[in-house]
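Session log. Operator J.P. requested a structure for one protein chain; no other inputs attached. Running the standard single-chain path with token output.
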Amino acid sequence: MAGNAGNAGNAGNAGNAGGVGAVNTGSAGVFVLADRVDLPFVTVDFPPGQAISANRNTMLTEFPDKYWAGEWRAWCVLSQYAATNWQAIAVADWSANNVPQELDELVTAARDERADALAEIISQNEEFASYFVGLLTIRQAGYPCTFRLIDLASIVATYTVLYFKGGTKVYKPRPRPSQLCPALLPPVPVPGHPSYPSGHSTEAHLIARVLIDVLAVSPNYGYLTNDLLALAARIARNREIAGLHYPSDSKAGADLALAILPLLQSIAEYTTVLPLARAEWT
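Structure written below.
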């Protein structure tokens, strides 16, 4: 499914494509309504002799904007972001890092931190946007536009990071740590795409940056900014402890998110939804 596109960071975080939908973004299909076989609801007469199927909404002439599920809206407007100069983002060469030293650091992390971090590693493998939602103690019903921007950040981050994972003129696609050191034995499946930059780090940091932008009008802006960035860093770090990413992958993802942000802020969807999202916090 679109959710968890190979854990490119968690396309799964977008709506019910795997992540935010788990905390109710309003995605269609998150529940199933049973109906009777012998008397489907649409065939009921109420009052007797008056078919409810004759009740038609003649006022609705187009799909209401508020009915969009966040992830599908994000896919719909992705072309706006794609029209920016996003491919010109400069991403550093990973081979400039000391790979043996980074592998040694991951071995130490697996020994000293993995057992303690395992629950988070597994929980955040499929989706992690719910951690941001939990941190802010919000629900989709009260903050629909905030959720919409979370979905947009998720899709844009995944789209962008997968392009740079494929390599550039500056660097080749980077092998996963466990491909160089099999004994790292990650406790979750190793994604089927290159290691650099970290998708989890890119997406988590972009979600955090977008939420910080939304919260610029909130009296809680100061401490929530630190909380959001700390959570993004922790999500990225957990992927290192799992043996899935090098520390330099995480840093590149954080840097990539910061470079994506002004491009995302320039598109029509973002400029339209941002003031609506901020209004939810004032």
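Operator note: The mean pLDDT is 91.
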